[in-house]
Design a protein that fits this description.
The chain is α+β, with helices and mostly antiparallel strands. Helices cover 29% and strands 32% of the residues.
Amino acid sequence: MAPSFNVRIFRWTDLESITAIFNDINGLGGTEKAFDVGFMRQFMSQPDMDPQEHCFVADLDDAVVGFALISYEAPIGRAVASGGVLGGFRRQGIGRELLKKALSHAEDLGVDVLHIEASSQGEAAQRMLESAGFHKAKGYWQMQWTGDVSPTPSLPSGFSIRPFKIGQDEERLTQLQNLAFGDNWGFSPNTVDQISARVRLDRVTPEGILFITDNGKPAAYNWTMISADDSRATGFISMTGVHPDYRGRGLGKAIVAAGMQYLKGQGVDCIELEVDSDNAPARELYLKLGFRKVRETLWYEKTFPTPNGQLSSEPGE
């Protein structure tokens, strides 16, 4: 007889369980990358996250064993679902029920498309998504750099590098990020409130967000993060963007090198990032800087009919 479980809305008292499940399903437990409860609270308290409306948990015998968090991106009519089931409780129908809940919630939100990321090695998750009507839409490379000496940024004449200034640069960074990524697949424009929250996350420092400027005007940026414990530190290049007016001038390579130099100066053991596998220029840039592909993730999508019965387009089109 299958065990009886219940799917309900998230409560803040679930936070410790959610953190443990997140670390388990992502293989982070016992590593420097593991989320602690404080960082998870920060993450889930970001503007527009609202987990008490958009997160569902699965209870089994009064224990939380799975969750589905739906991020609602109204500007592009998209929702993104993440989560999973704690090891030892899989293959019992819990994941499928959480997926059903994510689908129904996305439909209630009136979005055009729901996206879910899965490991390229996660065959069971892929089969579940495909059986629910999802199809593969995009692949991302996860890349890693483990060199001893980081590259030195080389800037065109008249350009300079400066760090982000907390309390002063939030709007500037928001505008630059939206311009740099406006045409990218699945990108939803950020608000100043969202960026203000993200630059204050525990793993971010103002000095780790770097601008290349042209006479004071931001032309490119690199946003780094660091996860560390007592024995190891991993750096992340989470976002890199170049203003459309400054593309083709070598600023992308320069700002990535500047971010790598900053992270190496903080004593990280390696640097990681992800890149759209279809973005050949970015992919080749990272390879030339010494990054190597270590794994791949797949993005699955399901579109919902619009009121006139036509399928919607992909976000960003």
